[in-house]
Amino acid sequence: MMATIGRVIRCKAAVAWEPRKPLSIEEVEVAPPKAHEVRIKVVATGVCHTDWEYLYETGKGMTFRPFPLVLGHEAAGIVESVGPEVTKFSPGDKVIPLFLPYCGECVRCRSNKTNLCRKNWANTQVGILADGTSRISCKGQQVYQFLGVSSFCQYTVVPDTSLAKIRSDAPLDKVCLFGCGVSTGYGAAVKTGKVEKDSSCAVFGLGAVGLAAIMGCKVAMAKRIIGVDINSDKFEKAREFGATDCVNPREHSKSIQQVLVEMTEGGVDYALECVGSPAIMSAAFESTTEASGTCVIAGWTETESMDVKVIKMLMGRTLKGTYFGGWKSVIDVPNLVDDYMNSKLKLDEFITHNLLLDEINVAFDLLKSGEGIRTVIRLQDSEEDKEPTTTTK
Ligand code: NAD
Ligand code: ZN
Ligand code: ZN
C-alpha cells in the first residue's frame, strides 16, 4: 500500500492567482479523495488554447470562473488512491482525466444522440467537486479545479465518472493529448460531422484541434481536405496530416468563403471551424455547399454570437457544434488510445515541445506565437518516481 493513502500530499502546481497574470509555481496541498473520487499522480499534460483563454480572456470571450485556479485539462496519469465507493479504479491504473463526464446512467449517457453527461456538471464548471469544495489548497486558501480536472498540478482528485482507464502500455506523455484537443478535432470530423468518403472538406485553424480534424477527414477518406490558417507556417504540418491544399485568407482579396466556393465549384461538403472566432464560424458555414453542406463548430467562445444568414440556412446547410468531439468520454477515450497504439492515429506529430512544470508560461507563449502546436509538460521526474511528501491534515 502506498504510504500516501489517506494523507494530504504536498506537491508542486502552477497556480493562476488572478486573471491575465502568468501562472505561479507553488507548493500546494492535495487532500485525499472523498466518496466516488480518485486521486491521480499527473504524469504529463498538454497545454490547450482553452487553458490560455480562461486565464487571459476570462470575462471577455469566456465567462468568469473563480480564482485562484489550477488550470490544465489535457492530461494522463496513474491512480494513487481511491475514495470510498469507487469500484472501477485501483492504485496503479493508467488513466486520462476528463472534463466531460460519462456516468453511463443518465438519459444523455443512454442516448446515442449526445455525449453531454451532466454528472457533477454544475459544480465542476465552477471549479469544485460534489461536496462543494476543491481538493487543492495553497497557503491555507482553497484553489479551484479547472473543469474539475486541474492537471497543472503533480496530483489531482477527480470524480470517478470523469476518468478513463487506459491500457498499461500507453505512453502517458503522448496519450495525454486525448484528454482534449486531439479527441475534439478528430471527433469533430468523424463523429459529429460524419465526414464521408470522397467528400471535400475545409478545416479552419491549424492548431492541434484543426490538425486532428484533418486527420479525421483523412481517416474518413475525404477526397479533398483544404487547410485554412492566417499563419502559413502551419501548412507544412497540415500537409503531413493529410491536407491536399492550404489557403491563407490574408493572401486573397476576396473573402475566404468566396475563395473556397470557387476552389470547389460551389462549396465544400464539410467545413470544420477550429479557431474559436465568430467571424470564422460564419465564413466556415458560408463556405459549405448549398443543399447539403455541413459546418461543425469546434472552436470555443462562451459569450459571443455568430452571424447566420437565414437564406444560407434555408438552402439546406446544416450547422452543428461539437463538445469533446462528440465522444462518450469514459468509454471512447480508451478506444482512441488503442487506435494510436495500433498506428491508426497520429499523436507524436502534434507535439512540438516538451517542457517541465516550472516552464509552463513558456508553453503559453509558444501557443500564442503560433510556434508550437502542442507542448507537453512533464510533471514528474519519472513515471515511477519516489513517493511525495505528505502531512496529516
Ligand atoms: P491553437 O491556438 O493551437 O490553434 C488555432 C489556430 O487558428 C492557429 O493556428 C491560428 O493561427 C489559427 N487562426 C487564428 N485566427 C485565424 C483566422 N482568422 N483564420 C484562420 N485561422 C486562424 O488552438 P487549439 O488548441 O487548436 O484550439 C482551437 C480552438 O478549439 C480553440 O477555440 C479552443 O478553445 C477550442 N477547443 C474546443 C473544444 C471543444 O470541446 N469544442 C475542445 C478543445 C479546444
Ligand atoms: Zn482543451
Ligand atoms: Zn450521464
Kindly describe this structure:
The longest helix is centred in the last third of the chain and has 13 residues, at 329-341. The strands form three sheets. Strands 3, 5, 6, 9, 10, 17 and 18 form a seven-stranded mixed β-sheet that branches. A six-stranded mixed β-sheet has the order 4-8-7-2-1-19, with no helix packed on it. The chain has a six-stranded parallel β-sheet with strand order 13-12-11-14-15-16, sandwiched between helices. It has 393 residues and is an alpha/beta fold. The protein contains twelve helices and 19 strands. Nicotinamide-adenine-dinucleotide binds next to helix 1, helix 5 and helix 6.
Based on the model shown, name its key terms:
single chain, 393 residues, alpha/beta, 7-stranded mixed sheet, 6-stranded mixed sheet, 12 helices, 19 strands, 25% helix, globular, binds nicotinamide-adenine-dinucleotide, binds zinc ion
Question: Sheet bearing the most strands, described?
Answer: 7 strands, mixed
Total E-strand runs: 19
Q: How many helices does DSSP assign?
A: 12
Unreliable stretches covering 5 or more consecutive residues: none
Alpha-carbon distance between the two ends:
20 Å
| Bound compounds | nicotinamide-adenine-dinucleotide, zinc ion
Computed over alpha carbons, the radius of gyration is 21 Å
Percent in strands: 15-25%
What integer is the average pLDDT?
Answer: 96
Helix content, binned percent: 10-25%
